[in-house]
Amino acid sequence: MARPIRVGIVGCGTVGTAVVEILLTQKERIREKAEVEIEISKVAARNWSKKRFFEVPENLRTTDWKEVVESSDIVVELIGGVDIAKDVVVESLKRAKPVITANKHLLAEYGREIASLMKKFKTFLFFEGAVGGGIPIVKVLKETLVSNQISEILGILNGTTNYILTKMEEENIPFNVALEEAQKKGYAEANPTFDVEGVDAAHKIAILANLAFGGFVKFSEIFVEGITNVDLLDIKLGKELGYRLKLLAIAKKRNGGEVEVRVHPTFIPFENPLSNVDGVFNGILFKSNYLGELKLQGAGAGAYPTATAVVQDIIQAAKQLTCCGKIFDITALGWNDKSLKVAKDFYSRYYLRFDVEDKPGVLYQIAKILAEEGISIAGVLQQEWILKFLPKPSKVIPLIILTHKAYESKLKRALEKLENLSFIKEKPTLIRVEEEKY
Amino acid sequence: MARPIRVGIVGCGTVGTAVVEILLTQKERIREKAEVEIEISKVAARNWSKKRFFEVPENLRTTDWKEVVESSDIVVELIGGVDIAKDVVVESLKRAKPVITANKHLLAEYGREIASLMKKFKTFLFFEGAVGGGIPIVKVLKETLVSNQISEILGILNGTTNYILTKMEEENIPFNVALEEAQKKGYAEANPTFDVEGVDAAHKIAILANLAFGGFVKFSEIFVEGITNVDLLDIKLGKELGYRLKLLAIAKKRNGGEVEVRVHPTFIPFENPLSNVDGVFNGILFKSNYLGELKLQGAGAGAYPTATAVVQDIIQAAKQLTCCGKIFDITALGWNDKSLKVAKDFYSRYYLRFDVEDKPGVLYQIAKILAEEGISIAGVLQQEWILKFLPKPSKVIPLIILTHKAYESKLKRALEKLENLSFIKEKPTLIRVEEEKY
User: Tell me, what's the ipTM?
Assistant: First the structure.
């Protein structure tokens, strides 16, 4: 066998520790299966006095990330964030060293810059761990689907929010109680903003849109709505109507070449293959011309699943270095200089909940305004069974309207007018509905 | 860009035709995404007068497979079967040419011989299309899960039988009617033996067991039971009990090192992620130590999905030839000389249906014999609601017994004794239950 490949790891939190554990304890298995010899050169962490679930041998420890870059053939960046992490990645690429990362934030914000460094210094960055934890979403998109035109990606890409939404439904509890529970179980961070506001899912779908459609998305152009305002009532009413509420990350190619990239709470019918992806699990559905629908589902976070993805990338790069003396990517896809034009408006079905006084003419006036804006109504629901879902007896009754597909700009204009009607007591609730039939 | 890679295709049925179509019509896309130049050298078919859905250019046509091997850098074998296909594969490997195939039959029967040729002539054979059509099952097993210990694979790997079982349940029809329907729709062949008897699924699980557990399985040692004897009554009773009936291909690693490899109709609880894989779709669940459960689901057959898998392999091989001048496999896993010891007995839960006369002492006697063999009963069902599932009023009533886990040899011994009891009117029905809770 050829000389060992030296792998250096920067960042030794839970994922970093799991990567070290797997590389050290599975060394023999990896040698036998993949026929590569992988050696950890150095592991950098700020604080080595902290107790970890796997003890990193003392001779591998350092606090200086530059020492890691210096001593390695492959650099693994697992610090996260966009500060030091960026320096590590940039410095490694400039030295033509391949980089493995799980840092979605960095890729979503600085993908273009990283891609140009890759090109300039003829090396590569791999990032399976950045999207969907251990689920091989990036590999499938880059390698399996390479000959396919992808029309649509629907993903449940954030385990924290999926856990919260599942708990709200199962245990009949509001958002803030479910969030607390998630925090207690370690599924949500003390500061859960990135997760619950949809930012984490948006980072991930930005990366996938790039790979699928071949160009960069400006992160600030992605429409992002989190789950902090989700009302338990809508989860329950939606379920009665045959829908489950999921925080969906969506990327779609429009005929004109524009792409829709968005993250928001979304109703999907029970028949949608993603509707049974529950709890902390992630799931993704690719639609493409030759393969049709392909769904992947599994552990979207957690130290070991994410480490599995990182180790997959390490082995692939090490194998290339061993067999070929250089690195290449089967398909780089979006890692070019192109930009994707993100659609400002989008086209969807909608669930609208109006809390209205129960008096004559209400439906007439709402329907009139919707008609004026060209919004076509697919269904109306205001029936007695709705009352049983209300927390307490009320004179204000929910009126549910399901629309056909419409541009959201038009819908928003209609809603502005509707808000002025005296019998509408609260700002209407708008939830997008992804109702392709499967 | 480097010189074009010449790809030759032997066999131009539906999958072969779709591969030709994709390589020719997506040439530009593949060049842009993967940065490889792929050229079809020759396509061999026995009969060129047959009309195909994509017309193969005349200058590429030949009837001589040797001409294809001669003129190509990569040989794609898509004839199927184990006769000429084997000659094509052996001859190509002997000339150190990489081979892509979708031929599960050949791999399941001659995997060991093929592997030794690969080693001897320092080349590789890739076979994503052999298992699960367009679903990247082989890639995930070889590349993503390389650092994981796989404990279990559960797969719905045959679309024909899954379609038939789905239709039986949905339309309340017996096996032979559902089979006719599948044949009319082109989902089952005129001679459906390989599919309905479970042989096709067994070929596939043999390949996966090899990859997952690192050694060859003797095909004749695999326990295979098809769906031809499945009774609609059991599908319906099972559903009432919270189970769906699927033809499952199972590979499990036992603690002692033995493996269970088997294919048979299996009850799985609604909560099992595979229970909603319906119709012609395939699905697979991998259980492994670091990643936990990973599920893939998609088009398990069909010309274009399978062609997507074949083209994935072609591009990967072409990319390696272009960048590296040689072929390598990220992980070869099971492609060594080892043999797997296949467990002769296996360990499962069981659903038993006894058609009994409704008279005192029946349950006592059945329970006594089961107890004598150490079979522990998890549940008994003989209630009035069962009667509604019977095709016509009857004095013979189904008695359902669900057992705890037991060795099948013991159960079979008990069943032999039970068959002699006078009040048991038919050979008892035995269906294995895969009831890990998810």
Answer: 0.94
